[in-house]
Amino acid sequence: MPHNSLLAIEKPARYMGSEVGSRPKNGVEVRFVLAFPDVYEVGMSHLGLQILYAVLNDQPWVAAERAYTPWPDREEQLRAERTHLATLESGTPLARADILGFTLQYELSYTNILTMLDLAGIPFLAAERDKEFPLVIGGGPCACNPEPLAEIFDAFLLGDGEEAVVEIAAACRDWKRSGDPKHELLEQLARIDGVYVPSFFAVEYHGDGRLRAVTPLQEGYGRVRRRFIADLNDAVYPTAPVVPFLKTVHDRVSVEIGRGCTRGCRFCQAGYLYRPVRERSPEKILALVEETLRGTGYDEISLLSLSTGDYGCLTPLLKELMVRYAEEKVAVSLPSLRVGSLNQELVEEIRKVRKTGFTLAPEAGSERLRGIINKGITEEDLLRNAFEAYSNGWRLIKLYFMIGLPGETEEDLHGIVELARKVKLEGKRAGSGGEVNVSVSTFVPKAHTPFQWEPQIGHDEILARQALLRTELRAKRLVFKWHDAPLSFMEGVFARGDRRLAAALIRAWELGCRFDGWGDRFNAAAWRDAFEEVDIDPCFYHRRRERDEVLPWDHLDFGVTRAFLLGELDKSGLGTPTDDCRSGRCSGCGVCDFDRIRIRLADGGWQGAPTSRTAARPEDDGKVTIRCRYTKTGPLRYLSHLEMIGLFTRAVGRGRIPIRYSRGFHPHPKFSFATALSVGVESWAEYLDLEVAPGFTPEEVMERLNATLPHGMRIMEALVVPPGTPSLSVLMDKVRYRVILPAGAEAGLADCAAAFLALESFPFRKEKKGKKPVEYDLRRELADLAASGNALELIIGRGKPLEYAAAITGLPPEDLAGARIEKLDVLFKDTPLPLPIQIQDMTNGQ
Fold it and tell me: How far apart are CA 805 and CA 801, in angstroms?
């Protein structure tokens, strides 16, 4: 990669690697790439990928590495440079890995899979890949109907992956040792519980396009049953995960407190795929939280579950977390609270932590329709929870609904508006003048649910129902947000699609489709052309399915029986509820064997543990300011100032440095940088002030930070700054830089430097979009200049070193884009330097 190539693209930190927690390995037998078909910040927020990363890397003979879909600007750059997509850990091209495992999280990420394969030089179709290419395998929620990808993938893992991925890696290791043809590897994989090899099944169709049969081609390999983790307390969990430099979608400690849901909402695929409910014990959760906070330095904990409010002892667990971590300013978030699972005590605990937004999901606008979908909540529940939230200080409640549910009428749409209006009135009743945002998505029938036979409303009908809601909600002064109709349309096609869709997928990718789930990048015209060219009517996949029809996923067993799903479909037509399994009444879905696979609930009587309260944070009195000089070299030069703030925030947390915090609802650690270093510049003289508790020495700051900072960043010196000392930004006068010019730009450099020094003035005007132009004189801001070989050394005041290099050489800035820029010294004003400046170890960032 050219020295500064990442400077030409958006968010270079997506492609850097070298994060804290990453685990590069050499000399391993199996290199397993965990590939996420979306951008880095989305993929790094996915807990499942972090779990598999830890599970695999715990095996000494496996190296788990990561790869994400490059954003279009990076894709274009890789193609222009003729560079293959590679892993973040070791830079290994994906085609040289042994296993390429994709997370199938969302149907509209499928074109991104093709982008990653193409950038790796890997053929799309499994039939075209021999043993010289990596095994391409997929897992995740979309693997419950992987048929649209069946001709592209070698295999899929159905269900929980913690144990199965190690078995898959071991099978690959044994196969590599044997030297057998690839078919032997597929046969080994088919013997692993939960692994589906699509080439071992033949598919036939009726003349009208419906599926005739899915026929197994291997004896004893008929239905493939999903994989189960029996007990979450025994499952591996990443307490030292990779901590990204970039701010991600979920920038916090995520702890899965339970897997599965007992509610039985008939539209909810996750509620059926992840049965039975398995909860972690509160003791285990507390231990994981403590280890992960220390391993990451995060300041927020998210308790994850399909329905966090159903966790058996949530309120005492939340109280315990508050007692332990409130003084460290660690917040707790509960992302999936169900209407009816809230009570006043729980709301009061949540209030202590955060009051950003409060989301409730009634799903449907009427009691009748909520009965059809088995939502199991009443309007009374919803309004009570809304009143409790507003009464405890929340000003905004977000309501989540779906349109297009089976049995929905226009009256139900009006019901959404009326229910939202009533929630807003609860805010007025509570005296807070509550605000309401109404968010509406379109129902997409999903495989392995009671509604898998139901039709999906068409594109025009989606738009008509959205228009009705938009008009009525606007009249009630309620904010309306919706999911784009074309995206819901495409999601529905692939959610219940079959193998024939692979041709349309590949053609759409060839026509330029990328990042389809990002609404502003979705290319409806290209998809339309793709379907026409391969002679597929996408609306065919939205139709109602007959009860005796062969479904594309019927040979994949996720535990819930077909008879149970049909029974639930019948009950939906009558509006008959199905009881929550948590109450002790088994619904007979077929998942549990009541031995190894069964519901496992936390102790509902648990009321807390012997608490180890964290050390109190220092208050305003007695602050001590410690000034540090540190390096920022190698790949870390691509970090922006905002990303540097996040890096040090995490480092302070990991090092358990008793730093002082700002006041307010969202307190931040009190440290300040001298200046914002330009992205791409390496530095040997960056400065940082930290406010810490009395008695904490500069030596301790150095030791603890250097133990947690990534390679390329090191605290070189630290000292106490006396009270009243001016800030770094006030003290700084000039900066010494070295600019190493790219090949071909150094001709006559010494003469150019001499000519520039002979000038009296060199006015410079900097234009910034949307801002007032900045003008200064480069010659008068230049204090010293020397040229040697292909390098310039200069001491400057205002301006950027590349501006000076362009002015001195007479070359346009684009010809100097490959220059290496190093910040060597900071020169301070007529004040004793806070730190002695020593240029040392300049060839080593450590």
Answer: 6
